[in-house]
Amino acid sequence: xxxxxxxxxxxxxxxxxxxxRRGRIYTVFAELEIAEALxxxxxxxxxxxxxxxxxxTALTRFLDAAAQLGIVDNTADGHVNLTKLGxxxxxxxxxxxxxxxxxxEAAFFERWSRLATAVCTGNRPPENRQQEDDPRWVPMFTxxxxxxxxxxxxxxxxxxDNLIADFGDSPVRVLDLGGGHGGYSxxxxxxxxxxxxxxxxxxxxxxxxSEIVETSEVRDRMQAVAGDFHxxxxxxxxxxxxxxxxxxxxxxxxxxxxxxxxxxxxxxxxKLLIRRQxxxxxxxxxxxxxxxxxxxxxxxxxxxxxxxxxxxxxxxxHGFRLEREIDIPAPASGxxxxxxxxxxxx
Length: 346
Description:
single chain; alpha/beta; Arc Repressor Mutant, subunit A; Rossmann fold; 2 domains; 7-stranded mixed beta sheet; 3-stranded antiparallel beta sheet; 16 helices
C-alpha cells in the first residue's frame, strides 16, 4: 500500500472509530422511546421531558443533535416533532419501523465495549449474558430480528419456490427450527399456498412469535410451538427443516446433538436448509464475516462462524450430503445450502 493510500485509510479508520457517537444518538433515541411520545404530534421540550423522564436541558441538547441528523424538527415556538425520516424509522405505527433493531444495537454496543475482556479470557463476558436476564430482552430481540427479516425473507422465499414445487400439490410441512420471529416461515407461506409451517423455539420467544404470527394473513397455516430443541421432541415427518442462524450459536456438542435430532425428524424425501454463514475455500475473507465471528464470541457460549467446508463435514458425520445451493436474489444476498440424507444413512 502506497503512503498516500495509507494516509487515506488512517483518516477512514479515525472516522470509523468515532462513528459510535452518531450511532449512539440513533440508538438512544430508540431507547428513550421518544418517537412513541411524539406519536400523537408535536410537544414542548418540558412536556416531552416529563413524558420520558429526562432532564429538559440535557434533552434539548440531545434533540439539537438529533435534528442535525434529520430525525426531528425543533420548531421556532419551542415544539419538537418527528420528521418523515424519524417517523418511518422509529414510530410504532410505521410499517418499516426499525426501533427494536436500534434498541438491540444499543445492547450490542454494551457487549462490544467488553471486547478486550472477551479476547483476554476467550469467553463471553458474564455481563453480556446478564443482559438477557432482563424481561424486556426476548421480546425486543425477537421483534428486532423480525424487522431485519423483512429485508431478506421475500428473497429467501423466492429462492425456495422451486424447491416447494418439487413436492407437487401435496401440503408441504415446514419446520422453522429455532426460527424465533417466524419471518421466513411467514414469507414462505405467503409465497406458497401448499406450505404449512411450524416455528419451534423457546417458550419466552414463542410468546412474541405468536403475536407476530397472529397479525399475519397466513396465520391459519402457521403454528408457533414452544420447546427446547436440546431436550424436547421436535416432531417427525418434516418435508423441509429450516435451520437459519442457529448452528453458529451452538457449541460443537450442541450442534451435533441438534443435527442428530434433525436427521430423525425429516421425512423420507425431506431436506434440510441452511443459510450459509462461513466462507467457502474459494471465497476471500471479509471484514463482515470476521466481525460477525467476534460477535459470536461476545454473545454465545462457544458459538463461532465455521468455514463452510467444516460445516459440511459436520453434517456429513450425521448422514447429510449437500444436494445443491441456491442464491438468494437481490436486494437480499447470500446462499441457501440444501442437504439431504444419504440413502444408506441411519
